[in-house]
Give the backbone structure.
Amino acid sequence: MYLPLLLTRDDDDDVRVLPNVCRHRGATLEREAAGCKRVFTWVIAEPDVAHMPGIDARIGALGADFDWIGLPDHRIAAIEQIDIAANWKLLIEGGLEAYHFRVAHKDTIGPYFPDNLLIWQSFGPHIRAMLPRNSMPDLGDAPEADWHLRRDANLVYLMMVNTQPLVQQDHVMWFHFEPVSEALTRVRMATLVPNSAPRTPEMQAHWDKNQRITVIALMEDFELGEEIQSGFASRGNPSHLFGRFEGALDRFNRVVEEMIAG
């Protein structure tokens, strides 16, 4: 594995060489092969730096959420699978923070969400995160009757260890991350829709469109994950950091470590 390097000249015209790997979480700092910049950064922001039987026992308090969503009354409308050259944990981490949206998703889903705004809560080993949309009203001024969570926010669940349901306005995306090796993950992405939804060509086209939109956005995350994997493999930085905006990532990794320890 090669070491990605970034060659620059300083104000005195001296050549400087540094790893092209972010010290934060390992992303590639500069993707262009040549050019002129005074700052090299991926995100210009300070990061501030026992097995239980039965599904009810496994999901615990989140069972009420899935009853509200009505998951038992959903069917698969679209599904696909792809292999990504990155560790499975890196791909899961991309769904547990929002500060990357304005960069990684600036031309796709980024404009629909506030910058770097995510709320999360742990439920035993599992995590529930909420990503408010720009459409969310000021709840302090809006009557409760006007609060519509699925209209104005996305809900992301991390069901340990490697499943992530994403609850959207009229459907649920279901992601499964299967580790093939330490640097290869098989990702399955399915659109789950209510059984009550009409089974017409027009509705199927609607579900297929939503699947494409989600996959396009995820591929932006996966490309970043592959860059991070390459950065890790280069050993350009001895360690990396989670900032205060990344509490869910820290929690996820601690749970993984606890599971490994038994």
